[in-house]
Amino acid sequence: MSRLAKLLVQPPGVDTAPVDLDSVPDDHCFVCKTIYNTVDDPDDPEEQPESPVQIHPCNHILGERCLDQWIATCKPIPNCPMCRVELTVAPPVEEPFITKILLAIANLSWFQIQDRLVGDLVHIFRDLNGIGTSWNGAVSAARGRNLRLPEAGTIVCYSAIGATANMAIMSSIPMNIFTGILYLFHANTSVVSRFHRYYNAAFIINSLAYVLVVACIMGVILYQSRLLRNHR
């Protein structure tokens, strides 16, 4: 299996099946005595309620969190905490590709994300300066004919800079805004809860401000290009 394929596949786990709470003979887990559909810490928004699951092949029913804790202590061969029979291992399950992307973004710190945003702007300004400098000869010749033009360093090829700005926006902004909105509206889901330290309303505002800066740069470029065409 390729490295990419391994990243997109969850490790195998114990084969379990959800159980209807009404069909469970007891209202609590037989092992840990936790009552189903309750949480240990009501003040913790990330804690999921205990739910009953049936394990195979023995078909015993116990709490899902209790089972996870038990399996973590009985590696490498998982067994039932009630009868000690070896449990059936479920086949690997492929996760959606977008989940892997979001988890990869979650591993970035706030400062790394900020550096990437600032880095995009730095590259745009470098392109502005570099392309403007390459136009020095043409600007000097135009001024020799007494044309009213801006400074040489600010005369740029707006189509080339437009492509640069578009690449910067396409590479960073959409995913940043998407993950921020995802956190705001779905912060209780198991995947998105891992982003709560990084994505919030301030981050969305920061991304929108970045788009505004790029739009202002493009406006200046188009305005100067129009001046250049009017004086030809």
TrEMBL record:
<feature type="transmembrane region" description="Helical">
    <location>
        <begin position="155"/>
        <end position="186"/>
    </location>
</feature>
<dbReference type="InterPro" id="IPR001841">
    <property type="entry name" value="Znf_RING"/>
</dbReference>
<feature type="domain" description="RING-type">
    <location>
        <begin position="29"/>
        <end position="84"/>
    </location>
</feature>
<protein>
    <recommendedName>
        <fullName>RING-type domain-containing protein</fullName>
    </recommendedName>
</protein>
<keyword id="KW-0862">Zinc</keyword>
<keyword id="KW-0863">Zinc-finger</keyword>
<keyword id="KW-0472">Membrane</keyword>
<keyword id="KW-1133">Transmembrane helix</keyword>
<keyword id="KW-0812">Transmembrane</keyword>
<dbReference type="GO" id="GO:0008270">
    <property type="term" value="F:zinc ion binding"/>
</dbReference>
<feature type="transmembrane region" description="Helical">
    <location>
        <begin position="198"/>
        <end position="223"/>
    </location>
</feature>
<dbReference type="InterPro" id="IPR013083">
    <property type="entry name" value="Znf_RING/FYVE/PHD"/>
</dbReference>
<keyword id="KW-0479">Metal-binding</keyword>
